[in-house]
Design a protein that fits this description.
alpha/beta; Rossmann fold; 3 domains; 10-stranded mixed β-sheet; 7-stranded parallel β-sheet; 26% helix; binds flavin-adenine dinucleotide
């Protein structure tokens, strides 16, 4: 098989700095290999058979040096796409340039990428590249194998479980970190690699014009960068395990008592015909793409509808979930369209194309020639795959994983998102192109207040996309709750010391209605599965209570849990950095604390 692997050498988040003008200081930053790219390279080496593996990276000459190092791991050739005019490319311009490079290099059966680069953390280039190449793609893959002679089988990690998908090359797959640890390089191969030449492709070789690449070819622009210092909490510390465990039990009980039940919320639908105010039926639209009718999606609809009173707020629900679709009217939507399919199809490129076709139709006479000014998508795993594919279909910019949105009077959507393990936040705008697109972090908006007086009838649309990916099976995660949506997260670090200890923590999690999580070191040690990993290269959680057992508090771990309402840290080392980020610290052995905690909790 002929395989291209797109890689990106990245700066280490722990090393980043911002200057007096709030600009990122890039000079002198040591580059490391992006962890998920390493998985992609190793997966390619295992799959290639008699074929070849070609690494492609876009960057400056320093990135070329990293490529040289990678040749020593058994890769056939490496290509550096580099030109001063390419500086400042956003994901759209990067994907366009990589697309041209892959076409220049000849056809590939398979394109592999890491699921996300740890500097910008967008994960947008792989889906955008697949759309430009006109091939199907799967993101967030933990296992990729041949299935018979012509097909590929892969496991995609989702919030609620893992599914096995079947697809036929040519295709693009993006891999999760640590799925395939990169094989070591021998001294001999390192020597050989130094002698190999790296091919360099510039703008001219790719037939690109200056308008197509770099800042000029980028729909989005970073307006400002700010250093995030808000994570410090430094709450009380307790050195007595018993007293600490008792307080922890009270905190867990308090969360359980305040537990929100979604069933309490939505008022039932009103069956009368639409009585929506005609006044709000205007030609400019803001479109919310909904995977489901969950509380997070309804909140996104409410927040999107409130962004601008000059725009009509519309929802496309991607699967027919029954009468629930009407809840979007109560959450603020003026129009709701539903794709008439029983469940979300597995092929994200087909979904993106179907949405794009419909959005184009909206600007025809049939729909009053309205213009779609902005599109919002929930930044779930599937949302973060569908959104970039849609942006590429529409030829527009997209900002990933936004934590805040506002709309200026001139209709410019100001999008704020974290970067570099949440150490920075960037304010991004898309001035030139429309629609302006953002994927929005689930859970950042308050629960939607449903207005029973607003009601309407959804319109059902045939699903026009052609699916090139088949779902083979789905395995639902079991346990005390799904990590991303859990109110209480019980997290294990390397300090718990064994796989058995993690199993025991799992029992405590079940008993207390918590979800189980882990640090990367706990995953590396084999105590916990990767699906539990919280942090820069794992899951981002925002529970009401995060309990860190035997976790030191690295920058990369904090990136995944610093949004928790309350943090409790249990660590034997009083100097562990996690205590600076905890509301309550217990300086004691985690096992002693958890044993007492369990007794206290059961007796409360
Ligand atoms: C590119 C990159 C990406 C990364 N992504 C992530 C990520 O997504 N998530 C992540 O977590 N890390 C990530 N890391 C790794 C990160 O840098 C740290 O190495 C990791 O978070 C440390 O995990 P830990 O706190 O469990 O282990 P350690 O740092 O080894 O800490 C273990 C702690 O346990 C305490 N301890 C020991 N025994 C006990 C006991 N009996 N009771 C109580 N406490 C005890 C110790 O005092 C110590 O503080 C990444 C690193 C890189 C370079």
């Amino acid at each position: 098989m002929k395989i291209a692997v797109c890689v990106k050498p990245v700066p280490d988040a722990a090393e980043i700095r911002v200057n007096d003008q709030n600009m990122l200081v890039r000079d002198g930053l040591p580059l490391i290999m992006n962890p998920s790219d390493e998985s992609a390279i190793e997966a390619a080496l295992r799959l290639k058979g008699d074929g070849e593996v070609c690494l492609v990276t876009m960057g400056n000459l320093t990135a070329g040096n990293v490529l040289k190092g990678l040749l020593a791991h058994g890769v056939g050739r490496a290509v550096l796409v580099s030109d001063p005019a390419m500086a400042g490319s956003d994901t759209f311009a990067t994907a366009k340039t990589l697309y041209k490079a892959l076409i220049y290099l000849g056809g590939f059966d398979l394109i592999l990428c890491g699921r996300r680069a740890i500097d910008s953390e967008t994960g947008q280039v792989p889906p955008e590249l697949a759309v430009f190449l006109g091939i199907p793609f799967v993101t967030n893959v933990t296992c990729l194998e041949l299935n018979g002679k012509r097909c590929l089988k892969c496991d995609r990690l989702l919030e609620t479980g893992e599914e096995t998908l079947i697809l036929t090359p040519p295709a693009l797959v993006s891999l999760c970190e640590y799925s395939y640890p990169l094989r070591p390089a021998s001294l001999f191969s390192m020597k050989n690699a130094q002698a190999k030449k790296i091919m360099i492709l510039d703008m001219k070789a790719l037939g690109q014009s200056a308008e197509e690449c770099g800042l000029a070819g980028s729909p989005t622009r970073v307006r400002q960068m700010n250093l995030n210092e808000a994570q410090l909490r430094s709450g009380d510390c307790e050195a007595d395990a018993r007293a600490g465990a008792r307080k922890l039990a009270e905190m867990v009980m308090a969360v359980a008592a305040s537990e929100y039940s979604p069933k309490k919320l939505p008022p039932r639908k009103n069956t009368a015909d639409s009585v929506l105010s005609q006044e709000r039926i205007r030609r400019k639209k803001i479109l919310i793409i909904a995977e489901d009718t969950s509380q997070d999606t309804l909140s996104l609809c409410a927040a999107g509808s409130a962004l601008s009173y000059d725009m009509e707020s519309c929802v496309i629900l991607l699967a027919n979930t029954g009468t629930d679709a009407e809840l979007f009217f109560m959450a603020g939507a003026d129009k709701v369209w539903v794709f008439d399919v029983p469940e979300l199809p597995p092929d994200d490129s087909a979904i993106a194309r179907a949405i794009a076709d419909f959005v184009r139709k909206l600007s025809t006479e049939m729909y009053g020639q309205s213009s779609v000014e902005a599109i919002l998508v929930s930044a779930t795993t599937r949302g973060r795959a569908i959104a970039p594919a849609l942006a590429a279909e529409m030829g527009t910019g997209l900002t990933a994983d936004c934590c805040s949105l506002s709309m200026a009077d001139n209709g410019l959507l100001v999008q704020t998102r974290p970067a570099y393990a949440s150490r920075l936040s960037a304010e991004i705008v898309c001035e030139r192109d429309r629609p302006q697109m953002a994927s929005v972090r689930p859970g950042i908006f308050q629960a939607a207040l449903l207005d029973e007086s607003r009601h309407g009838k959804p319109e059902y649309l045939p699903f026009t996309g052609i699916c090139r990916i088949k779902r083979d099976s789905f395995r639902l995660f079991t346990g005390a709750g799904h990590l991303r949506n859990a109110d209480i997260v019980l997290a294990a670090g390397k300090g718990i010391g064994s796989r058995e200890a993690f199993t025991w923590l799992g029992e405590i999690a079940s008993e207390t209605g918590s979800a189980l999580a882990a640090s990367r070191s706990a995953v590396d040690m084999g105590y916990a599965p990767y699906s539990c990993q919280v942090g820069q290269t794992g899951v981002v959680v925002r529970p009401k209570l995060y309990i860190a057992c035997g976790i030191s508090g690295s920058v990369q771990h904090l990136a995944g849990m610093s949004g928790a309402e309350k943090v409790v840290a249990i660590n034997t080392d009083p100097r562990a950095p996690i205590f600076d980020y905890a509301d309550f610290g217990i300086i004691a052995d985690w096992q002693d604390v958890m044993e007492i905690f369990l007794n206290e909790y059961q007796s409360l």
